[in-house]
Design a protein that fits this description.
The chain is an alpha/beta fold. Helix 3 crosses helix 4. It starts with 19 loop residues before the first helix and ends with a strand. The structure holds phosphoric acid mono(formamide)ester and norvaline. The site of norvaline has 10 residues, from helix 6.
């Protein structure tokens, strides 16, 4: 045996069940250090491939900036420019890329393709969104709440309103890991898969978290410390647009919903938003929105994720150090 630890992937937020609190402390420390002009160089000499099958503004940009900040190099790869787009298999793509790069960030239509890439890659694979989960997003969201709630989520009430989609799946797992009380108002036909709910419930048994559902946005939002929504029509669901717009009418974060939550409620949206559908302009542009900090936190959260999976950070947990500090 070589003594080299096995490679570690991030396909589901549940993969971070052991590390999430320390990971968030590290992300916050790096955020604070960056504001002072200090950047760690923990990814120096590291190359990261980024395969995106779907469009992206935040995930792509924040990963590229995170990798550059940490002294590494990011390669953006579009499947239409790769042999993948002409029928080369995912397994062969994984084998070849693993000979060049130190990690692969992948945004996929299908979770089974994500799992296939991870199975055949010998380097870490990071899920940058698929039809099942969006784990990197939820790490940033928990960081946003952690900052605003002074370092703890325990017993706080979070209400999610809208589609039982990839974002909600990761949000349930993340809430369960950190001890949030999550109530999701979702039309019955659009609830998340039972297997993911059961996984979240199993994690929640260790932390005192609660994972609940109802069909009334107002009841879910009543007394909540935070409200969260996502689009009614995710990438890949466009053929169902008409049916979804009908089913989700009323599943909107608006002033009426904010009014029944706590007065100091924070409103989250992973973006992009369809203003006027799942959220109104008045809430997005209003004083309770934490949405822009949430988008910024993708950058800091992903730095901590990259360090963890690449084994790059060796300083004490929660410290800003790791590798050589260099001026920003
Ligand atoms: N929230 C998010 O993942 O945004 P992008 O699709 O722009 O990456
Ligand atoms: N649920 C959305 C998230 C976008 C970041 C989608 O999959 O399109």
């Amino acid at each position: 045996m070589s003594g080299v630890p096995p490679k570690r992937d991030l396909l589901s937020l549940a993969d971070l069940a052991e590390d999430l609190p320390a990971l968030l402390k590290r992300a916050l420390a790096m955020k604070q250090a960056r504001a002072r002009g200090d950047l760690s160089t923990t990814l120096q000499g590291t190359n990261v491939a980024m395969i995106f099958e779907k469009p992206s503004t935040r995930t792509r940009t924040s990963f590229e900036v995170a990798i550059n900040d940490l002294g590494g190099h990011a390669l953006y790869l579009s499947p239409k420019d790769m042999q993948l787009g002409r029928g080369e298999t995912i397994a062969d793509t994984a084998r070849v890329l693993s000979r060049y790069v130190d990690a692969i960030v992948y945004r996929a239509f299908r979770h089974q393709d994500m799992a296939e890439l991870a199975r055949h890659a010998t380097v870490p694979v990071i899920n940058a969104l698929d039809d099942r989960e969006h784990p990197c997003q939820i790490v940033a969201d928990l960081l946003t709440l952690y900052e605003r709630w002074g370092g703890s989520w325990k017993g706080r009430k979070l209400a999610y309103v809208g589609d039982g989609n990839n974002v909600l799946n990761s949000l349930m797992l993340g809430s369960a890991i950190v001890g949030l009380h999550l109530t999701s108002a979702i039309p019955a036909a659009y609830r998340p898969p039972a297997a993911t709910v059961e996984r979240a419930e199993a994690l929640a048994r260790h932390t005192g978290a609660q994972i609940r559902f109802n069909e009334s946005p107002i009841e879910a939002a009543r007394g909540a410390d935070a409200l969260y929504t996502d689009v009614w029509v995710s990438m890949g669901d466009e053929a169902e647009q008409g049916a979804r717009e009908k089913a989700f009418a009323g599943y909107q974060i608006n002033d009426e919903l904010v009014a029944v939550a706590k007065p100091d409620v924070w409103v989250l949206h992973d973006l992009p938003a369809h203003r006027g559908q799942e959220i109104t302009d008045s809430v997005m542009d209003g004083p309770r929105a934490a949405i822009w900090d949430q988008a910024e936190n993708r950058l800091h959260a992903q730095k901590a994720i990259l360090e963890l999976l690449l084994g790059a950070h060796r300083g004490p947990l929660g410290s800003a150090s790791g590798g050589t500090e260099r001026p920003g």
